[in-house]
Specification:
mainly alpha, Znf_put, transcription, Anti_sigma_zinc_sf
Length: about 60
């Protein structure tokens, strides 16, 4: 799995892309597997996922 820069095995830098469904199927599977076993990354994902869900409330005009 590609972890954080510097050799950290955690996946925090990829959580935004994961929450938005922007990863490849293999990356998605690896992130999901990591989240199953890492409470810290799972908690960070919960925060990111909430933000991604809020984006759905806006249309393109709102974001400009």
């Amino acid at each position: 799995m590609t972890g954080e820069a510097g050799g950290d095995p955690h996946v925090r830098s990829q959580l935004g892309a994961y929450a938005l469904g922007a990863l490849t199927p293999e990356e998605d599977r690896l992130i999901a597997g990591h989240l199953d076993g890492c409470a810290n990354c799972a908690a960070a994902y919960a925060e990111v996922a909430d933000g991604a869900a809020l984006l759905a409330l806006f249309d393109e005009e709102d974001l400009w």
